[in-house]
Amino acid sequence: MNGFLGGMPPAEQLMTLNRDDRDGCLVLMVQGEVDLSTGGRLLEAGSEALQQAAGRPVVLDLSGVDFLSSSGMGLLVALHDEGRATRTPLRVVVDETRSVIRPIRTMGLDEVLSLFGSLDEAITA
């Protein structure tokens, strides 16, 4: 049997994560889809970053995300709450032109999360 099970590629191909240290911030760059199949990886990487940041801001760059499901929004809230508990600022980058801004606004998360329009804005905040 060749191909992906059920016609779906593995989660590693649906979402990629890259980590970088920039100007005193720990940056997680996310590309692809954030949903039930990929969210666990993002939650794990985000939690690890928040623990290792030791109070430095963690920037979660979603500008390369094409799809954000309700479970993905739930994990953004979980990471936000974890950041507050550890006194580590979580800054989320969401370009106003990307489709993922709509569900964030619809659910009122733009009032909860610290949103920025670009990576540079989030780093210099």
TrEMBL record:
Pfam families given in the database record: STAS
PROSITE patterns recorded: STAS (PS50801)
The domain of life for this entry's organism is: Bacteria
- Domain STAS, by residue range, is 15-125
Q: What is stated as this protein's family in its record?
A: Belongs to the anti-sigma-factor antagonist family.
Spell out the PANTHER family in the cross-references: ANTI-SIGMA FACTOR ANTAGONIST TM_1081-RELATED-RELATED, ANTI-SIGMA-F FACTOR ANTAGONIST RSFB
Designated name of the protein: Anti-sigma factor antagonist
> What's the source species for this entry?
Pseudonocardia alaniniphila
The opening ranks of the lineage are: Bacteria, Bacillati, Actinomycetota, Actinomycetes, Pseudonocardiales
